[in-house]
Amino acid sequence: MKYAHVYALFLIVVFHTSCGQKQTNPPRDNISKGHYSESQLKEAATSKAPNSMVRNVRQARNGDILIASYLGVFRYDGTSFTNLTGKIISPRFSSFWDVLEDRKGNLWFGTSVSGVYYYNGKSFQHFTTKDGLASNSALDIYEDKAGNIWFATGGGASRYDGKSFRNFTTKEGLPNNEIHTIMEDKTGKLWFGTRGDACFYDGKTFTVLKNKDGKTFKNVWSIIEDKKGSIWFGDVDGLWRYDGRTFTKVSQRGAYAIIEDKKGNIWTTGSNESAGQFLEDSSGRPVWALSRYDHKSLYNKNPTVAEIVSGGPALLGLLEANDGSIWFGGLGSFIGVHRYDGKTITDFRSAAGQK
Hints:
Elements: E1 14-16, E2 22-24, H1 38-46, E3 54-59, E4 65-69, E5 72-76, E6 81-83, E7 96-101, E8 107-111, E9 116-119, E10 124-127, E11 138-143, E12 149-153, E13 156-160, E14 165-168, E15 179-184, E16 190-194, E17 199-201, E18 206-208, E19 223-225, E20 231-235, E21 238-242, E22 247-251, E23 257-260, E24 266-271, E25 273-274, E26 277-278, E27 288-293, E28 305-311, E29 313-320, E30 326-332, E31 336-340, E32 345-347
């Protein structure tokens, strides 16, 4: 397989929980650009579609699909792909993890080693630690209700108000400076998933989440609020739901990315588990899955879950497009970006997928 040797370039960190249960940490960005061959870098620079690891998939206000791939950020207009970052950084030096279109129509690109890029449709601006960003590792971008842009970085949470950055770290009360995700709920509280404990911020104080047994929720990569106001997140033990009073473990399946679709179904990507056993394929690679939890049974003791597809070593970012299709990114057997229309999965690296 063309991309088979790429597996070796990503380190999958496997750790044990206090219960002895195995889980997979999403691939960390420790790839050396030197591991890409000249032909791969050339292909990435001229490719019509993303052909490297896709961490996040978003939607622009006009309905276009925005894809943050490791070797470039792409826009898909329903017909063709456009590389938005080819003019500012070559694949040899790029390392994109997230993309966001803000309410003014400006685009933000987050990278794992090169800080943040801002694009207003005409020119680019580059922000790094020299400009006040907490870290040059910006893995997630979020716009709050006030229009501030937040960056989940490896050195804390950075908030940009259009003029300057304000950083929140352990000095301000965060439980861990390595931030994975940020989300604002309907009440205005900000939720943070970190490599350590998950927490929320009410504007004054950071509060670490704890279940009834006093256990915290560690290594949270995705947090959403559903239509009912419940908070969903995945930690090292699986998928959880919080209704403001009680934490309920919905599934032991991993949850790297979480979305709620228009029907109220919950979709996740994450490590696949069965009876508490960590699954690997015949080559010893971890198995990840795209899963859908049926909205009619979400509050049952054992909700109905459909596994749409599985593979490895990871399935990552998730999006429901305006037409109801589900887009997801990954690497390995699902490297690049894919679309699921309810029946068929389209691989956009293929010639058929690019038509």
